Structures are given as C-alpha cells and as structure tokens.
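User: Um, any thoughts?
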Amino acid sequence: MIDPARSFDRAADAYEASRPSYPDALLDLLPLDAGATVLDLGAGTGKLTRVLVRRYAHVVAVEPLDAMRALLEQVVPEAETHAGTAEAIPLGDASVDAVFAAQAFHWFANEEALAEIARVLRPGGVFADVWNDALDPSPLPEAYVTRIEELFHAAPYTGMDDSRRTEVVRGGPFGEPQLDGIDHEQVQDRASVLAFISSVSAVARLPENERAAVLAELGALLPEGTYRFRIRANVRWAVRD
C-alpha cells in the first residue's frame, strides 16, 4: 500500500487531465495587488499556479513529488519552481506577499508547516487555504456514488479536517481567518470522470492489481455521457501579523 500523500505521484497524468481548476475571480476576494510575489505551496500539477500567473507579477511553486512537479513545469513554465515541503520551504524569510495551498493544506496542517508559512510571509501578507467542493445534486449514477463512498470509508485518511485546519491557522501569527468562495463548474466525459477517481488517494494508494480491479468495477457503473459538476471554489484566508 502506498502512502496516501505520496500516491499522487503515480497518478500525476490523471490528476492533470481530470482535476478542476479554479476561477480567476476567486483571487478578487483577497487583499493582494497584481505586483505581488506569491507562493503556491504543494502546487501539484499547477491547477492553481496557472491561475496565479495570470494575476501576479512573480509566482513561485513548491512541490515535493517529482512527477507532479515535472508536469507543473511543462504546463506553467512562467512559474519559478522548486522541490520542497511545507515543513522546509526553500525560500528566504519574509520573501513573499502570499502563500497559497490549493487542495493541499489538509496534508500539512500542522504547527511546523504553519511556522514555515509565517516565516516566508512578509508582515501583512496573506495565507490562503484553497479547495474545491462538489455541490449537490451529483450528476453521477447512484450506484457509482455509493461505491465511491465505500472506498473512501475504507481508506485511511491522515489529512486534517476543515475545523482542524482553521484551528492551526488561529494558533499562528495571523488574524482571524475569513471564508469566501466562488461557484463554477466542470464538464467531464466518462473517461475524465474515471481519471479523476483514479487520481484520488483512496484509489491511487492501492496496489496496482487492486487499483485496476476497482477502476474496472467503477467503469461498469458509469455509462458514456457528459457529466456537468457544480463546484464551489473555497478560500479561507488570514493576514499575517
């Protein structure tokens, strides 16, 4: 069994092909100007990074997994990229105006990582925890949804839940976190839906034979067609003291 947080490296192509992006308007909710230097921490394949480079003067992306980072460098060559972790960010003190963690903070919502985030942020800088939530009703067949829920319940989860992430930020040198969001949508075909679930840690972590069997089972439950997902892009942000 592969470590859940590292399972994304074997599913990098599926992650890039199927995961939703974020609306540019999400950045309008933050007190940052276009001249800012910002960090995308745990950037993955650059789903948020490509949005950041359209807005800010200098974007740095840090990603620990080699396959994810290689795709990031191909897709978003405008960003400055580094190998590194949230607990050891390869940047200097007070070097950025904002730190973003997109669909990633639940993997490193701990005091050590928050201290590193605070270290690289300038006073008055912004930390933004960003994630997508699918909204009801789901366009997926009921049997498919039920099987996915069973897989999630059976998988070990080592990330932090939403309330814990908020508590960690409140424990650092930050003002009170603010929660905002923007609705958007993603349209997928059958292949993209299956690629999405193959990139989720509950499936990506499985030994290859089990993973293939699960994907075949799910494929049998999912007819060809177009699937339109309503999504809420969330941002919980706080200003560094």
Observations:
- The mean pLDDT is 94.
- The longest helix spans residues 142-154.
